[in-house]
Amino acid sequence: MEQELSILAYNNGNQIAVGIYSVLTVILAFIALRVARFSQGTNVAGKVISSIFGIMSGFFIIDVQSYRHFWNDVTATYLAKAKDNGIELSTFASNWVEQSGLSGNDLATRGLFNDIPLLVFVTVFLLIVLGTIWGPKINFGNES
Fold it and tell me: Cα(12)–Cα(30) distance, rounded to whole angstroms?
């Protein structure tokens, strides 16, 4: 049980780091949307640079969120190894290993494109950012 708690605590620490980076992705997305808004009236070079920033922001969101799945898979393989070594796992840990489909001999890999809802979100985000940059100028209210 102690080894299981140690593995789960390690996963917890990794997920906290992912959570902190997730907050940064929200801030980065806000900045990308602001850059897109103010890039509407610029020249082509400004629009290209703003577009690159928006695309990089979208990639960073995907990259950070891919670590959620990676750490869960790493935890499942460590729990499976512990079970293979004769350690009795709790129902929670056994279900974690069973639902992951991984064994103690598997190597957890990090895939960028394994979260479909996140990919849809980033696609919509990029459509908004790039559409705002390259689309017609929008009057956002009291602008001079």
Answer: 27
* Nearest Cα to Cα of residue 11 among 56, 77, 61, 109: 77
> For residues 36 and 129, is the Cβ–Cβ distance under 8 A?
yes
Q: Write down how long the chain is.
A: 144
Closest CA relative to residue 48, chosen from 112, 133, 105: 133
Phi and psi torsions of 48, nearest 5°: -65, -45
Helix (H) or strand (E) holding 104: none
Instruction: Let me know: does 79 contact 4? Beta carbons within 8 Å.
Output: yes
pTM for the whole structure: 0.81
Tell me what pLDDT residue 85 has: 86
